[in-house]
């Protein structure tokens, strides 16, 4: 199983970013996918989840600003992040089936 995140970087407050998670080594369409994040000095937290059937759920801190989606034909999960705040600064991780992890990607929200 391999999960590779991309799309992170530095963005100004109020800006947007889209993270991608390219998956391989398993039947992507049958796995639930999630995005987690870990800020310095804090525990890793689940912020967005999408079932294999497409149902979604979000942490209160990102609901209404972030959107998780998946493209089963491309074996890729996405996290569209809008109205970004400095407190969204963290390393973001892709997860499959609550078991497999990507390497993480830095998102920094700063002016």
Sum up the overall morphology in one term.
globular
- As a percent range, the share of helical residues equals under 10%
Query: What profile does the largest beta sheet have?
Result: 7 strands, mixed
Q: By helix and strand content, what is the structural category?
A: mainly beta
Number-wise, the strands total 11
Mean pLDDT: 97
Q: Please give the radius of gyration in angstroms.
A: 13 Å
Low-confidence stretches: none
One letter per element, helices H and strands E, the order comes to EEEEEEEEEEE
Please report the number of helical segments: 0
Oligomer type: single chain
Q: End-to-end distance, in Å?
A: 37 Å
Strand content: over 45%
Summarize the structure in words.
- This protein is mostly beta strands.
- It has strands spanning 2-6, 9-11, 17-24, 33-38, 45-50, 56-58, 66-71, 76-81, 90-96, 100-101, 105-109.
- The strands form 2 sheets. Strands 2, 4, 5, 6, 9, 10 and 11 form a 7-stranded mixed beta sheet that branches. It has a 4-stranded antiparallel beta sheet with strand order 1-3-8-7, with no helix packed on it.
Considering the chains and any ligands shown, give keywords for the structure.
single chain, 111 residues, mainly beta, seven-stranded mixed beta sheet, four-stranded antiparallel beta sheet, 11 strands, 0% helix, 51% strand
């Amino acid at each position: 199983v391999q999960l590779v995140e991309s799309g992170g970087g530095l963005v100004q407050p109020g800006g947007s970013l889209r993270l991608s998670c390219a998956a391989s080594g398993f039947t992507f369409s049958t796995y639930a996918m999630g995005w987690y994040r870990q800020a310095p000095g804090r525990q890793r937290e689940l912020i967005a989840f999408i079932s294999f059937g497409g149902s979604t759920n979000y942490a209160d801190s990102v609901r209404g600003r972030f959107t998780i989606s998946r493209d089963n034909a491309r074996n890729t999960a996405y996290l569209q992040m809008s109205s970004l705040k400095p407190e969204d600064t963290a390393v973001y991780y892709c997860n499959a089936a609550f078991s497999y992890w990507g390497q993480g990607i830095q998102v920094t929200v700063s002016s």
